[in-house]
Amino acid sequence: MNELDERYSTAEDAIIDAFFLLIKEKDFDKITVADVIKRAGIVRSTFYNHYENIPALVTAAEDKTIDDIFHMMESFHPENNKDLCRSYFLAICNYTKKNPFLAGLLESARGDGFFEKAMLMFHKYVTGRSDEYHFRNVSKEQYTYMIAGTIGATIGVLHKWTAEDFASPAENIADILTTIFLNGIFPFMY
Hints:
Layout: H1 3-25, H2 33-40, H3 44-50, H4 54-75, H5 82-98, H6 100-107, H7 112-129, H8 140-163, H9 170-184
């Protein structure tokens, strides 16, 4: 990466990080470019070199969040190992708690567009990955629906957890998600 690319990436990270911090302080729709540049410590032109406006920044935040989740998904290789599953779901819980953008989307109706986009991407990912697994007593189509159900259940659990302001420890939520996975979809794999 050359110096120009590195500066571009650093400014972009600062902008997104500032946006994530602002989400903790202000209503989502009240955040302005002035708020972001002040928090990021950049000038207005730097913001506009990266994003046309706040909606474009929101799209970038969505894409970053989805990308982060995909990286976690790719590192998860399901085995009949409760500790391995739990550590994966704990990583998802900790990421959700750490990412105010995702937590805010899980809590509110404004997340509908994000989750539709994410679900389409997850479906493509799962359909592609399903060729790697052997299924017991279910077809590939049934398996992909089961995975979709597991993803929906995960989002539902995370929604409840964020709506309750993370009242339960992340470890407890990871245990619940692990139980759902190991008792729901895992018995049909391999």
